[in-house]
Amino acid sequence: MSNNIYLKKGLDLPINGAAAQNTKKVIVPDVVAVKPTDFRSLVPKLLVREGDKVLAGSPVLADKMSQNILFTSPVSGTVAEVVRGEKRKLLEVRIKADEKQEYVDFGVKKVSSLSAEQIKEALLAAGLWPALTQRPYGIIANPESKPKAIFVSAFSTAPLAADTEFVLNGQIGHIQTAVDALGKMAGCKVHVCVNAANASAFSKLQNVVLHSVSGKHPAGNVGVQIHHISPVQKGETVWTVSPVMLAAIGKLFDTGKYDVSRKIAVTGPKAVNPAYVEGYPGISIKDLKEFYDASENLRYISGDVLTGTNVGAEGFIGFFDNQVTILEEGDKYELLGWAKPFRTKLFSASRTYFSWLTPNKKYDMDTNLHGGPRAFVVNDTYGKVLPMDLYPVYLLKACLANDIDKMEKFGIYEVLEEDLALCEYVCPSKIYIQQIITDGIALMLKEMC
Prior knowledge:
By secondary structure, the protein is α/β, with parallel strands linked by helices. The chain has 10 helices and 20 strands. The protein has helices at about 115-125, 165, 170-185, 220-230, 245-255, 380-385, 390-400, 405-410, 420-425, 435-449, and strands at about 5, 25, 30-35, 45, 55, 60-65, 65-70, 75-85, 90-95, 135, 140, 150-155, 190-195, 210-215, 240, 260-265, 275-280, 300, 310, 325-330. The strands form 4 sheets. It has a 7-stranded mixed sheet with strand order 1-14-13-12-15-10-11. Strands 2-17-16-20-18-19 form a 6-stranded mixed sheet, with no helix packed on it. A hairpin with an 8-residue loop joins strand 16 and strand 17 (about 275-280).
């Protein structure tokens, strides 16, 4: 196991619209949404009705398969609407927020005086257990199992990602509390990966195994870090938690409140004066209206351009996200298209265009795919951007063939969609790689769990 990891493969997308490191406003939300769709394979049970009053930390949903796993309201207010989709699938619970926030009092707790079981019960009761993601498969961690390790990536290399040091400035005390709690509860090591290129407050954490990681995106992906530190084998599980949710766990024990407020980076080529806002998961895109021109044809992404979710102008930010990306919809056609001799406004990961001559230039990227899906082209394109010892083409073909044995052989236990997102970006065949991985994981969950 190396504490210094240098990754040679990867790609940083030169996209315009990084958020300036200042907090432009504090959002007082009108409506906040709790979305079961933020959690893989969750079968939700509704615990509230329209018109019910809730506090920040009041249970709103439960997991039908494990009803001690609760999902709580990020704000106090009134349940305004329960949104359902086809076959009455529960999509959102919308809560009209109060002007002044009130919290469920879970009580201040000293981690050193708690047992592992008491820590687990506190996380379950407050609705913070869903912050723990279990690999393989990227599902909510099983409260009845023990992981071999817990991993935290203290930085992100995703396009225009929020700066973790800025977002969590002054919260290292809460993070230390969370690290102590998780390590004691799970009875395993907590691995924290920091960016070798910058000084990090996370380097001061105690009771952790610290790793220094350098390289281009996806060096900040926790899945890539796990692959190089302690790969997930069949029958093993590891847990991951984001730095933002780590701070929320610490605040639960230090203040007795379910406080998932966070700085959210509003980014993208079409963002007007991109900056940070103070808000909550589940706030509406409409709360960010001063950051975009609603008259334009735009795409609103909760997350980054590679792995985020298109929520639309009427949508809500996801539970795990602290970034919104605003892009122009790529619905315009170019005369001659790819056959143009010069395309100075487009970036190419290869040397198809002349973007390699201006390595520091940023581009106003849009959503145009510049082509459609076609047959796999067998070459080393994926290998240039994937810093993992895997055979992605064989894994994808095994997923398409629903061949579980080969999916296991070629690494389905080690990857989530985000780990192969760059492969999809550079794919000359325009294959929807992330969707193939999603379908493969769904098959594994159905057949193996």
